[in-house]
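Q: Got a minute? One more chain.
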Amino acid sequence: MPTSLIYNWEMEAGKFAPQLKILVYTGTQRVKDVARFAKYDVVLTSYGITRLDVETLSQFYFNYIILDESQVIKNPTSNIAKAVMQLKSRYRLTLTGTPLENTTLDLWSQMTFINPGLLGTHTFFKNEYQVPIEKKADEAKTKKLNAVIKPFVLRRLKSQVATELPEKVENIYYTNMTADQEQKYEEAKAYYREKILNLIDKEGIGQSRFTILEGLTKLRQLSNHPRMIDAAYTGTSGKLDDVSHMIDNALFEGHKLLIFSQFVKHLDLIKEVLNGKKIPFAYLDGSSTDRREQVEKFSKSEKIRVFLISIKAGGLGLNLTEADYVFIMDPWWNPAVEAQATDRAHRIGQKKRVFTYKFITRNTVEEKILALQKHKLKLSESLIQNEENVIKTLTREDIEMLMA
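A: Always. Here it is, folded:
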């Protein structure tokens, strides 16, 4: 599993299967003696440690090898994917909520771990399935691939498993830019629109991907707050003003909040607001080393009612059912990522209704991304629902629409 989930698995094992003997095989002081594995029921380790210790770990014959968040091995040429393929066991399982993150090739790597040869070689799969499905929207190939993998996939929707969960109420909250913010946004939009469209005409869209991504990222940041790209900016931001007001209301009504952002800089701005109002909070991003302490602080303290989390660090593996409000600060292409963030609160153990607010700045690329999401994310709904790698599929017309 990813390193960040070791603690979660250890806690859940202690809670639901206290009779099992668990060995946590991580850390710089780990004893590299696989013979002692035989004394335990379950060995928990991370993908990173597996990559480092594959020669040692491959000497032990396990009954089961289970990959949690198995999309980590989606790239078959990565060292982690190569390492787990060398492990030996009688049975193999993979667990994931997002089996396809970018392309159908993600599926090939995970299915090859479970059932080597089922989907043929890497090249065969690409020619037989990936190209026809992704480039030509070939429905016959999609159905054929679905038929091959179906006997090996147990797909359980949360609505089937957690029937007792209270409802989840999803809201889109539209905010308006301030006058200063709008001026900054329009200047950047005009600059990138001309730069990107000229580059597409000269070099073709394939050679323009990096500039497209750069332009869209800058516009997204300006939609949030110009200070994210210009430290000298002294004005405010419509979104931050509205979020500040919503935090006050939610706390006044006694709610606990999770606030997710793709950008650590955005979380820093919210931190400033909370510190200014003397509102205590828990905090987690990719550089945090005190994950367990922050989770416990939020879960157990009545005083700490706000948890700021970067989606990359906390979009999976956290159980935060104390929260009943979830703010998604800056939506992106993949609704599955946002859904996983919301599910930190909306999971087994939650007794209250969960309210999600997705903050969208009007007349910006954020509003247009919502429109694109609806007709772009169709690749694998007929396989296992998830998204395409949207940047790769954007057309010149899409760019014009996003930067209109």
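A: The chain has 18 helices and ten strands.
Q: Perfect, thanks.
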